[in-house]
Amino acid sequence: MKDFETIYKKVKKMAPEHHFEFKNDPFWILITTILSHRTKDKTTDEAARSLYNTYRDSYGLENADAGDIKKIIKNVGFSNVKSKRLIEVSKIINHNYGGKVPDSHDELIKIPGVGSKTANIVLTQGYDIPAIAVDTHVFRISNRIGLVKTKNPDETEEALKKIIPVKDQIEFNPVFVEFGKNICKPVSPKCDVCLLTKCCDYYINGKEIKNKK
Predict the structure, then answer these.
(1) Helices then strands (H, E): number in the chain?
(2) Which residues form the domain of 46?
(3) Count of domains forming the chain
(4) Residue 30: which CATH number?
């Protein structure tokens, strides 16, 4: 088994600070994360900030017109679906939870459009509750390095729970996301500047293949 602490320290050295538009605001963290699916961070943040400036909270968003929301989030992926989903989510939070976003994984995933990743981002970034959010970056990097050997995000979450100390879980996702965007990219990762080459399965296996040729 690889030494997670050593790897994580090196990843943190390489990863720029991650920007959360609404850190410690569970409702807007939830809304932003829903918007982020198939959408770049900059576009997501701009749309979320515009929504916040227009509607302020779950009650304002509940009473919004879907067409007006769609105009605001027009550059976000699946804007038509998401504009209606945001109103639905706001109504559920207001009527089922008294306007307060749930602070438990089991309750969060009852909300339409909220999977385990979104729930865990709300917990870690909205409530500072340890959890492991597995997005495409976390799934790719964890398997690429060899921290886990998994086939899907759910398996990855369960495997990472066993090796990531609770103290590191809140900031684990943001750190790996930035590492994935800047160094360990999906295509053409920057292995030449990475500090993990001595312990990365992807790099080591690639080097072995080259040496055999």
Answers:
(1) 13, 0
(2) 26-127
(3) 2
(4) 1.10.340.30
Per-residue pLDDT tens digits of the chain, which is 213 residues long = 899 999 999 999 999 998 888 989 999 999 999 999 999 999 999 999 999 999 999 999 999 999 999 999 999 999 999 999 999 999 999 999 999 999 999 999 999 999 999 999 999 999 999 999 999 999 999 999 999 999 999 999 999 999 999 999 999 999 999 999 999 999 999 999 999 999 999 999 986 566 555
Residue bearing tokens 């030494």: 3
Name the token pair of 156. Answer: 């990855």
Residue 3 has φ and ψ, to the nearest 5°, of -80, 100
Spatial contact of 145 and 201, defined as CB atoms under 8 Å apart:
yes
- Token pair in block for residue 36: 């982020």
Residue 41 DSSP label: H
Neighbours of 12 (CB within 10 A): 15
| Residue 21 belongs to a domain | no
Q: Do 203 and 189 share a domain, yes or no?
A: yes
Could you tell me the pTM of the whole model? Answer: 0.94
Q: Could you say which of 80, 95, 127 is where a domain stops?
A: 127
